[in-house]
Every structure is written in structure tokens, then in C-alpha cells.
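Exercise: predict the fold of this chain.
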Amino acid sequence: MSTDRWYLYCILCADGSIYTGITTDVEKRVEAHNAGKGAKYTKGHRRPVRLLRSWGPLGESQARRYEARFKKRSRKVKELYVEDHVFDWVPFALGFRTHAEAKRFIEEETRKRHA
């Protein structure tokens, strides 16, 4: 198994919460969560889960760093990254801490691209 093939993923749990993790096989990991064999967090009343988005491939250490950063973000910021399909990691990697900061950056970059 190559250490360069890691993915960060977000799943929506049945209770409406968002869980973030890393894996080398997103499809199998989501299946494991739904089978009750995933993380302790997704067992019980949080199933079934649905994949919201995944990013990668990444190196293992990079995936672990991104996972730690992502888990510290507010739900609004997480939703922004899940919905954004153009800039992926740019605002996240730059360390925006608020939804407003990241949204302003994305809007500005979008205007530049469409100008």
C-alpha cells in the first residue's frame, strides 16, 4: 500500500453531524462506518452515513495534518470546503479560520477567474 494515496473525507451522519477522517480507500471506509465498524463516533444513532466529499490523493503526513486542521474548523467553514469544487485546498491551506475570510477569498478569486 502506497503512503502517497491517502484521502481526507467528510461524511454526513444520520444525526446531522459531520465526521472527518482519513483513509486509503474512501469507499471501503464509508462502508465500514455504515456497518458499525468505523470510528467510535459513527457507531449507534449516527448511522447511516453519507459521503459528502473527499480530497486527495495526499501523502499520509499531509493527510493527517489536514485532518487535524479540518476538525478544528467550525461547521460553517467545513460546509464551505465541502461545497467548494473550484479551489479545494487553497483557502484551507492558507489557514483561514472563519467562514467569512474563506468566503471573501473564494469570491475574489472567482471574480478574477471570470474577469
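Check your answer against the key: The chain has a mean pLDDT of 83.
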